[in-house]
Automatic annotation (TrEMBL):
PANTHER family found in the cross-reference section: PROLYL ENDOPEPTIDASE-LIKE (PTHR11757:SF19), PROTEASE FAMILY S9A OLIGOPEPTIDASE (PTHR11757)
Domain Peptidase S9A N-terminal residue range list: 43-462
A GO-annotated cellular component: cytosol
GO biological-process terms attached to the record: proteolysis
Superkingdom of origin: Eukaryota
Name of this protein: Prolyl endopeptidase
Peptidase S9 prolyl oligopeptidase catalytic domain span: 502-559, 561-668
Family matches, as SUPFAM superfamilies: alpha/beta-Hydrolases, Peptidase/esterase 'gauge' domain
Length: 674
């Protein structure tokens, strides 16, 4: 339910550098990397004065010239290449160690692998990884005797020689051969299972092209839709609904496309003109309706489209009321609505008749200590994802028949999990079944997929990610808490994002070398409910940073040392509405064009607080095509820091020319670089 597309990352990481240097392998790697034969002088970015004045306050940004929205300036690209060359030179002594780490990380990945098949109509759909390949194959198999084979937690896709054969619908490895970056973020099968629409990004800028292909032969159907988001849905077998963006990459228009017609003749169903709002698109689990939401950080309202009659356009489901946010689901004669307001800050669940959306009935009331995170709706069941005391929970309810009155919910059944702390998220489930599918992991449990029967309470693990290289989840190694072991402290603290404990195979390379990994749940996130988030935004944003420092200070008291890694160029970015995502972020950070927010933001904006002093070793990374945090922000940060710092510690910038916000594409490369 909580979308991350329109968000700038606030990632706070602390690393005990002094402690990490006590590890012999790291000492040797650091020492060799600083050897005089491989060192060169760091690049010195030229200074071009750029004055910015507001509220009588003058700031001078001598490195503003590094911003080039076209990413084509020879001078800017040359400077970034110099920084990359310098980083490579300084770290040349660690090349053998880097290769060893990459080999370790790759060695833990089971490259020949298959996802858990999910049932959709008469087929099993799934993805496959091939050994030595970076990208996915999208596949399906016919379900034998589909009409007589109901969904079950024990359902297994038959793969014998006499069973229906595998059909590869799309091989991303073939498509990716023509591109340095390749990512598919939507793969939607038409209702009659004859066509697929997929959204493709070949630069990392999150501007997509939607292709439609014939499932059986892979041939293109019509011309692709260009310059769109990855939000695309089938209304019916020959009609797509999709979203485009404005010049600042804000999703602002919903379109109706008939196959066989040109994109220029598509019908605009809705245009959101308020530049602080962005729109999104989802299809109901019942496949009968499409929902268009328009939202900022505190308000969200919804339209619905009858999938059988998309040409009738949008109808209002929940009105635009400032401070009220809603999300919708559908089943039978009712819409189910999650509604949040200032009074009901942790949300309530309502239902309303499809033919009279003005009449609502409460199903789950608001609770001060329990937050409704998401819901999954089925023909006869409801699964509610909640959060209480920092922990996620899943409650399954049985619903009355579609034709019976819907006035209240019977007592639900909570699912028990195997770890004391964990991550659990919805996975694709079959609407006309009693089987809830969810993904699960913890610090010791690799990514897993479970099927849970909401009638019987039976759940079956469908897959646990294979981690090669001798990983043993039951192994328990005591750590040293006397400061001799290095510690990585991780936090996020924005957008109400919850950083629940999760498994990451590449993290084992740190743990095997004696590192301790810790997570700081800081205000601005959503771990403790909506108010936890509200207390870490606007003029309370400083709480995010002081919370992180408090966690670090506690670890220091426990003799675990720490050094901080700063954020980037917040103030200048938030003052410029022409930069992608800025206008929609004012409801998160505040609008610094207002004096109160300006001075508050300036107090924590790292670029504006660089001064002549010692700084720790710092490695800063960027993606040239990142649309959320522009490459110029870390580039300016490094240039100004290099000009002012008074130490001889390493300051390195690595800008990936073929990457966006989430580093390079490909399964192995993403795992290694993230």
């Amino acid at each position: 339910m909580w979308r991350l597309f329109n968000s700038r990352s606030l990632l706070v990481t602390a690393l005990s550098l002094s402690a990490s240097l006590s590890s012999p392998n790291i000492v040797r790697s650091m020492s060799s990397s600083l050897s005089t034969d491989t060192m060169r002088s760091p690049p010195a970015a030229k200074k071009v004065e750029h004055r910015m004045e507001i509220f009588g306050d003058v700031r001078v940004d001598n490195y503003y010239w590094l911003r080039d929205d076209s990413r084509t300036s020879p001078e800017v690209l040359s400077y970034l290449q110099q920084e990359n060359a310098y980083t490579d030179s300084v770290l040349s002594g660690t090349k053998q160690f880097e290769d060893q780490l990459f080999k370790e990380i790759r060695g833990r990945i089971k490259e020949e692998d298959i996802s858990v098949p999910y049932r959709q109509g008469p087929y099993y759909y799934y993805t496959r990884n091939l050994e030595g390949k970076e990208y996915l194959q999208h596949c399906r198999r016919l379900i034998p005797n589909h009409d007589m084979t109901p969904c079950s937690v024990h359902d297994t896709m038959p793969t014998g020689p006499d069973d229906p054969p595998e059909h590869v619908i799309l091989d991303e490895n073939i498509k990716a051969q023509e591109h340095g970056f390749y990512s598919i973020q939507a793969f939607k099968v038409s209702p009659n299972h004859k066509l697929v629409a997929y959204a493709e990004d070949t630069k990392g800028d999150e501007i997509y092209t939607v292709h439609v292909i014939d499932v059986e032969i892979g041939a293109p159907v019509g011309k692709p839709l260009t310059s769109v988001t990855s939000d695309v849905e089938w209304a019916n077998d020959d009609t797509l609904v999709y979203i485009t963006m404005d010049e600042i990459l804000r999703p602002d228009k919903v379109w109706l496309h008939k196959l066989g017609t040109d994109q220029s003749s598509d019908i605009c169903l809705y245009h959101e003109k308020d530049d602080t709002f962005s729109i999104d698109l989802q299809k109901s689990e019942s496949h009968e309706f499409l929902f268009v939401g328009s939202e900022n950080k505190i308000t969200r309202f919804i339209f619905f489209i009858d999938a059988s009659k998309p040409e009738d356009g949008l109808k209002v489901l929940t009105p635009h009321v400032a401070g009220i946010a809603s999300w919708a689901k559908h089943r039978g004669n009712h819409f189910f609505i999650i509604r949040r307001s200032e009074e009901f800050f942790n949300s309530e669940l309502l239902a309303c008749p499809v033919d009279d959306v003005s009449v609502t009935m409460p199903l789950i009331p608001h609770r001060d200590r329990i937050k409704i995170q998401d819901v999954c709706l089925f023909a006869n069941h409801l699964a509610v994802y909640e959060r209480e005391n920092g922990l996620p929970k899943v409650i399954a309810y049985h619903l009355p028949g579609v034709d019976e009155p819907l006035t209240r919910l019977e007592d639900g059944r909570a699912i028990d999990f195997i770890d004391p702390v964990y991550t659990v998220d919805p996975a694709q489930s079959e609407f006309n079944s009693s089987i809830l599918r969810f993904s699960y992991s913890s610090l010791r449990t690799p990514d897993s997929v479970y099927d849970y029967d909401m009638n019987t309470g039976t759940f079956v693990v469908k897959k646990i990610e294979t981690v090669l290289g001798g990983f043993d989840a039951s192994e328990k190694n005591l750590v040293n808490i006397d400061g001799s072991d290095p510690l990585l402290l991780y936090g996020y603290g924005s957008y109400e994002v919850c950083i629940d404990p999760w498994f990451k195979a590449s993290r084992l390379s740190l743990l095997d070398r004696g590192f301790i990994f810790a997570i700081a749940h800081i205000r601005g996130g959503g771990e403790m409910g909506r108010q936890w988030y509200e207390n870490g935004k606007y003029l309370k944003k400083m709480n995010t940073f002081t919370d992180f420092i408090a966690c670090a200070e506690y670890l220091i008291e426990q003799r675990l040392l720490f050094a901080g890694v700063p954020f980037v160029d917040a103030l200048t970015t938030m003052l410029d509405p022409t930069i992608p995502l800025t206008t929609s972020e004012w409801e998160e950070w505040g609008d610094p064009r207002k004096e109160e927010f300006y001075h508050y933001m300036k107090a924590y904006s790292p670029v504006d607080n660089i001064k002549a002093q010692n700084y720790p070793h710092i490695l800063v990374t960027a993606g040239l095509h990142d649309p959320r945090v522009m490459y110029s922000e870390p580039a300016k940060f490094v240039a100004k820091l290099r000009e002012n710092k008074t130490d001889n510690n390493m300051l390195l910038l690595k800008c990936e020319f073929g990457a966006g916000h989430s580093s390079k594409s490909g399964k192995v490369m993403f795992s290694a670089l993230s």
